Amino acid sequence: MEVVIVEDAAAGGALVAEAVARLLARRPDALIGVATGSTPLPVYEALAAMARRGEADFSRARIAQLDEYAGLPPGHPECYRSVLARQVLEPLGIPADSFLGPDGSADDPAAACAAYERALAAAGGVDLQLLGIGTDGHIGFNEPCSSLSSRTRLKTLTERTRADNARFFGGDPGRVPRHVLTQGVGTILDARHLVLLATGEAKAQAVAATVEGPLTARCPSSALQLHPHATVVADEAAASRLELAAYFRSAFAAKPAWQGI
User: Fold this and answer.
1) Edge-to-edge strand list for the sheet holding 62-65
2) Which keywords describe this protein according to UniProt (predicted)?
């Protein structure tokens, strides 16, 4: 696993945005997997700045959604499709028909999950998947003890995750949906490049467990240890519990600049 320690969230966002832009320069129609929440916002802001300055053209990029709340009506402001339209599609000039995601309002969630798996396969798979990480090590909405071979499916959120997400629902955990459709850990591992971004001291234990801990379903993000091209980008606070932090700093410093992440 490649680990890159950066000064702060802005530096991490800029680094990941550069990796996305380089990929799209090589493959303008690459399929980029995107996540929601606070952590990836610096990435999207950096990409939007590139678009405004005319430094990159994102118009042919394709976007794949990591997860979606179940039961929210289409157009709800906290429906992840709506969030990603505001944060990614519109600022980068990506057409709405270039967006893939599970239907969180479907009457048959299992069928919606199966349809999304088929859509990802038909699209050729995700080229780069951006991930955040929960304080308990969840990726997507794969909570602790999720199967490491799981596929897109309906999941029940833990109370801890609902409390963490309450800030998007007026601070009331009771307004956070109890169920979600999420790519499974196995689905996530199908992406050609995984980039996990972690910022803040609250994520430090999860980052340490992901990188240096055992491979275990108790920490779903530890499955990144199985991937041939996984990159963890952590700011100083999120990297504060890594025992091998000095090694990771020296290894990245010695890497040729043209390789990027």
Assistant:
1) 2-6, 230-235, 193-198, 128-131, 31-34, 62-65, 99-100
2) Hydrolase
Q: Known catalytic residue: 172? A: no
Q: For residues 112-124, give the mean pLDDT.
A: 98
Catalytic residue among 68, 103, 127, 138: 138
**Catalytic annotation on 107?**
no
DSSP track, 87-112 = IIIHHHT--GGGEE---TT-S-HHHH
- Annotated active-site residue 164? The verdict is no
Q: Which of 67, 103, 127, 190 is catalytic?
A: 67
For residue range 24-65, what is the model confidence (pLDDT) as tens digits?
A: 999 999 999 999 989 999 999 999 999 999 999 999 999 999
Of the candidates 136, 164, 190, 235, the residue annotated as catalytic is 136
Domain assignment present for 260 = no
Q: Which of 68, 103, 127, 143 is catalytic?
A: 143
Q: Is 190 a catalytic residue?
A: no
pTM: predicted TM-score of the whole model, two decimal places: 0.95
On whether residue 97 sits in a domain, the answer given is yes
